[in-house]
């Protein structure tokens, strides 16, 4: 059970979460506008769709001001999808992309049929978590290709969202809690793999220095 939080504090937490959302997304948007980043159109459209539907479901479940950062995140995500289209980003589409889109769209009739936003949130949370698969694999193989700062900001943002929610239920808490934990998992993988990589590099440099010293000792003076 979360402690009772006064409404002004909830509003402040929500505002802080929105600020963190902006801090997380603005560098990515700047990279797109400068041509350094080519986002995958279909992926960002799906993420935007799922996030916006989760926002609507949280509002329906009386999440209140705590849901607004999710809505802002959804708008940023759709903006990135729009820029991907305008800037001719990565428009390649594979079978998994269509599967994710169909899963996201299935949440709406499921919500309508059950009259319970929880089912929509559960489906969309699953879709977003599956979307972390390639990122986690990439973080393990190429730990310096992802930004730890981005995932730290998003983990903190989702923590603030949970605290700012006016009503705590599975329907309102599931999405931000699950995504926050997924971000923490990525952070842990990046940190551990970078540490191992640095240790390996240090060991290689050490052995190279030792071999160089031995060669110098054997060389005629």
Write the layout of secondary structure elements.
Blueprint: H1 7-33, H2 41-60, H3 68-86, H4 95-114, H5 117-141, H6 148-164, H7 170-218
Helix pairs in contact: 1-3, 1-6, 2-3, 2-4, 2-5, 4-5, 5-7, 6-7
What would your notes on this structure say?
- The chain is mostly helical and 221 residues long.
- The chain has one domain.
- It is 80% helix and 0% strand.
Domain unit count: 1
Report the oligomer.
single chain
Helix content: over 70%
Strand content: under 5%
What is the number of helical segments per DSSP (H or I, 4+ residues)?
7
Give the mean pLDDT: 85
Instruction: List the helices and strands in order.
Output: HHHHHHH
Number of strands: 0
| Form type | globular
Summing up helix and strand content along with how strands pair, one would put the structural category as: mainly alpha
Largest sheet, in brief, is:
none
Low-confidence stretches: none
Based on CA atoms alone, the radius of gyration comes out at 22 Å
Amino- and carboxy-terminal Cα gap: 76 Å
Short description:
The chain crosses the membrane at residues 12-29, 41-61, 67-86, 93-112, 118-136, 148-165, 171-192. The protein has 221 residues and is an all-alpha fold. It has helices spanning 7-33, 41-60, 68-86, 95-114, 117-141, 148-164, 170-218.
Notable traits:
mainly alpha; single chain; 221 residues; 7 helices
């Amino acid at each position: 059970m979360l402690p009772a939080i006064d409404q002004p504090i909830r509003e402040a937490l929500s505002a802080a979460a929105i600020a963190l959302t902006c801090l997380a997304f603005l560098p990515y948007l700047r990279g797109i506008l400068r041509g350094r980043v080519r986002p995958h159109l279909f992926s960002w459209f799906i993420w935007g769709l799922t996030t916006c539907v989760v926002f609507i479901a949280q509002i329906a479940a009386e999440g209140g001001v705590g849901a607004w950062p999710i809505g802002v995140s959804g708008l940023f995500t759709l903006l990135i999808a729009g820029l991907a289209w305008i800037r001719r980003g990565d428009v390649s589409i594979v079978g998994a992309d269509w599967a994710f889109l169909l899963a996201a769209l299935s949440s709406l009739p499921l919500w309508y049929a059950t009259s319970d936003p929880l089912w929509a949130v559960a489906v969309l949370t699953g879709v977003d978590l599956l979307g972390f698969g390639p990122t986690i694999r990439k973080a393990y193989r190429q730990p310096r290709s992802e930004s730890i700062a981005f995932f730290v900001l998003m983990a903190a943002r989702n923590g603030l969202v949970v605290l700012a929610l006016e009503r705590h239920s599975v329907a309102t808490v599931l999405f931000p809690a699950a995504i926050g934990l997924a971000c923490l998992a990525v952070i842990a993988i990046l940190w551990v793999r970078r540490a191992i990589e640095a240790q390996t590099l240090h060991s290689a440099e050490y052995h190279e220095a030792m071999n160089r010293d031995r060669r110098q000792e054997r060389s005629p003076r």
